[in-house]
Write a structure and sequence with these properties.
Elements lengths: L1 E9 L2 E5 L4 E7 L2 E11 L4 E20 L2 E21 L7 E14 L2 E17 L2 E12 L2 H4 L9 E12 L2
Antiparallel strand pairs: 1-4, 1-10, 2-3, 3-5, 4-5, 5-6, 6-7, 7-8, 8-9, 9-10
Length: 171
Amino acid sequence: MAGLAGTAALSGASVIRAGPPSAANYDPKVGLAANIAVGYHFNDWVSAQAGYIWNRNLLITSQLAGTFFSQSESTQSQSAAAFDAMLYFRPRRSRLRPYLSSGLGVVNVLNEYRAGLRVAVGIDVSLGKGWGLRYSFSEMISANPYAAALAPPAGGKLMNFQNLFGVMKTF
């Protein structure tokens, strides 16, 4: 079981069209993130983990249509439920255990639920008696409703990067 907090950064998107002249983009700012997870160790090297991931970011949206220009700010939240397979590079008795994980999840952005691919790297640090610290850097890739909502709409995937640090307990 783990509880982590940190920061999240989203990928931006932009589009420019020549005729008639139009352009749009959104510029995301780094925001807060949280992750809670439970898992099961199959052996010293392989584990499975299910988790809930949440973050909130400020988005600055700019749109140009002919001579009309608008800009707005909004705070947006994203959440996901994910199931990951984890590969550890040291046995469970080690004080430091780096890992690589990957899995699938369901992402909620602008009240739209889409499939997402999550990849993370990190390290678990044992403090003894089942307690430990965890650092994780992850990326979740999914469809991009923010880009699709621009006028004109932009393409590309939404990439959600998270730096998380927290506490874990093993049983």
